[in-house]
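sorry for the late reply, my laptop died twice this morning and i had to redo everyting from scratch. anyway the thing you sent over, i finally got around to it. pasting the sequence first so we're on the same page, its 192 residues, then the predicted structure underneath. double check i copied it right bc i was rushing
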Amino acid sequence: MKKVLVIALFALVSCKNGENKYPANDSATSVALTKGSNSDVLSAGLATLMSDYFKLKNSFVKEDINEIKVNAIQLSKDAELVPVKQMKADATIVENANVTIQSIISQIQGLNGETSIDDKRKDFQTMSEQLYDLLRIVQYDKEVVYHFSCSKALNDNGGYWLDNSSKIENPYLPKLTPKCGDILDSLDFRKK
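ok and here's the structure:
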């Protein structure tokens, strides 16, 4: 009985008559993270990265394993040279971009380590989603980038990819269902 009384008393004291110890954020004191325009050096690095990503995607469409390897190696080099630290943004945004680019590099290295084209496609799928995240973080503004999905890809688990054209060229099932794909999103941060 003493135990129950002590627990009840503790619970009552902890609640402090229903007062919230953690008040809601006052919207007047909350500050949104900000991002400015990308520097020319950052934009050029991202443009090169995207150009070589599209080459890699097209290598998967052709199912050319040697070309996939060559383009993946180049893409990894490009990713290492993207100067995300030059972003004109809050430190949190810059750090998020840096972590994302490091994940992309790791995923490309995994892709290069795989021997079968199916396993390479799995890594390509993950890397494509990471790249999509990066483009949104940095607000890539050199071209429109389309985000595609094919529900039949990767054994009906679905696969995603990016392209600078709205034309469907499926890198997962190029012979079986080359037109399987839907545009999920289009990124257009160009100045209007």
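The first strand starts at residue 145 and ends at 150.
thats about all i looked at so far, will dig more tmrw
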